[in-house]
Amino acid sequence: MEKRELLDRVAMNEEERLLLGRVWDKYGQCRRRNIPACTEFLSPQEQAAAERLLRALGAEDGYILWGGYDGAERRQIHFLPDWETEPDYEAIRCLRCTFYEQGQLTHRDFLGSLMGLGLTREKIGDILVSDQSADVVVSRSVADHLLREWTAAGRTALHVAEIDPSELRVPVQKTKILRDTVSSLRLDSVVSVGFSTSRGKAGEAVESGRVQVNWTDCQKPDRLLRQGDVITVRGAGKCKLTEVGGATKKGRIFITVERYL
Question: Where are the alpha helices (DSSP H) in the chain?
Answer without folding.
Answer: 3-10, 14-33, 44-56, 107-116, 140-149, 187-194, 199-207
